[in-house]
Design goal:
This protein is mostly beta strands. It has three helices and 16 strands. Strand 7 and strand 8 form a beta hairpin. The two termini are about 15 Å apart.
Amino acid sequence: MAGNRLYSEFKNDNGDVYRVSIYDTNATWNPANASTFKLGSDGFTLSYSGNNEQQHQPIIPSTVEFTLYEETSAHTQTLDLMFSFPEGRLLLEIYSDPDGDNDIYWRGVILAEQVERADEPFPTAVRITASDDLGNLRDLDFTRSTLAVGQTVLDDITRCLLRLRTAELWASGEPFIRYINDTELYASSDDSNPLDTIALTVPLKMASDGTSESHNCYDILNSLQRALTHAFFRSRACFTSGLSTSTSASAMPRPSGR
């Protein structure tokens, strides 16, 4: 069935309430059996990384760190899964105002190699790190078979994001990408949605023997953001292309059937 496996809520200094949930993607897990856990006093820490020496950074990855206190067998079983299954089975979801609007705040993949777990009696403080998974796109060849139709800038950005291991958490039709319409085609009256109009040809890498191979998804996404002079990053409910908070921004829903 898949669903939340462990969860905890906390209130920050401003009185905002958040829920931190560890999500099990395995279809055999029943979320009705989910358990609570105790968070560390700092709640969670959301960080964006970048190179301050670069004037423009096309992709700005993010990570979340938090402390889980291992106190029960349910905690131990969940933590053991991080090391007995391939990375990507356990995901992280953070919601704001869980008892009210319950808005998604951040999603990512728990990184087993960065889990700090000491061999000591309960309660054991376990430091956990999760990534927005954008870096993992470097290991995935870009292909247009990920999305059946469309050859526009927006279609190819969407193809890259559908390869994220968190993509399944977005429901069909739920806002997936938020982007700024600041690219002009002919005149301002003609460019209401240029990123969904400009068609692309997929680039290939050519070897010295004349054979070709695909670029990876990260390189495709990075080059598109560089061409648009946009910055791409994870922001609350969806990914954002561009730094403006203009109300003229458009939202691309997650395609159905994926």
